[in-house]
Amino acid sequence: MHLFDLLEKSLLSCEIEDKIQSVNLIKNSIKHLTGHTGYWESDDSGILDIDQAGIPKNLQLVPPNQVKKRSYVSVEGYAALLHSICHIEFNAINLALDAAYRFRLLPKKFTFDWLKVAFEEVYHFSLMRERLQELGFDYGDFEAHNNLWDMAYKTSYDPLVRMALVPRVLEARGLDVTPAMQKKIAQKKDFKTCEVLEIIYHDEVGHVKIGNYWYQHLANQRGLDAIELFKQLISRYELFICKGYVNKEARYEAGFSELELNLLEVFEKSLEPQQQWKFALSRTK
């Protein structure tokens, strides 16, 4: 079966086990079929405009401000916390698959890179799902929001914009928040989950690095100033990259330069009053 047919099937699958098996099939097929030119050949005529990747049918998606806040002190509250991590990892599977599927006319290395990410995200999701199941719950038992996929679809028209805003902004925030989350979970003596988070954290540095590489590559290819373009994009999409605690050490490792982060931090501070006003106005509508 053609690689991009397999990717389409995986991306659209709503069944958890089916999606995982489909991704593993791609992983195994690559080992045996990479030498077959036909396996990779493609044009953009067969690409579906997938506005929603496959998610479990019982998963209720709600706006971010409608996700119930639960105290993680209770079993249900703690399960909801692990569920939110599961949801991020499941979304990350779809994001990686979509990058490989949608932007198929880029070099084969691009496809390989995002397939590698998809394989690792399946592993992350499976590990975290096991932790959730040990509490007597499963993925889909709690509501979730769709911010990650929404941004993926908003940037589906251009791989440069996708690389700028999904790996480098939204996914990179995981590098900032994971250490604090590990400390919170360690307080509950759930060291197995801490170990899973450590695996995820280590691999996510590599995923953000891949996003950084392709963002720089595509910007250079088009003769664009990568930092100035990034400023324009985070302003246009009203996003923050340096808001709150920033794990600069992890971000340096993932390919951000100190100069870039410093410039972006100054730039964001100049935008904050305007963006806060826009947010307040949107809440009144």
CATH names the topology as Ferritin
Number of domains: 1
> What is the CATH-assigned architecture?
Up-down Bundle
Strand portion: under 5%
Question: Strand-and-helix sequence, N→C?
Answer: HHHHHHHHHHHH
Features:
Ferritin, globular, mainly alpha, 285 residues
Q: Please, could you describe this protein's structure?
A:
This protein has one domain (51-284): Ferritin, CATH 1.20.1260.10. Helix content is 69%, strand content 0%. It has helices at 3-12, 16-33, 37-40, 75-102, 108-134, 147-154, 159-171, 173-186, 191-221, 226-236, 248-253, 258-284. The longest helix is centred in the last third of the chain and has 31 residues, at 191-221. It is globular and about 55 Å long. The termini are far apart.
Compact description:
With 285 residues, the chain is an all-alpha fold.
Blueprint (SSEs and pairs):
Elements: H1 3-12, H2 16-33, H3 37-40, H4 75-102, H5 108-134, H6 147-154, H7 159-171, H8 173-186, H9 191-221, H10 226-236, H11 248-253, H12 258-284
Helix pairs in contact: 1-2, 1-4, 2-5, 4-5, 5-9, 6-7, 7-9, 8-9
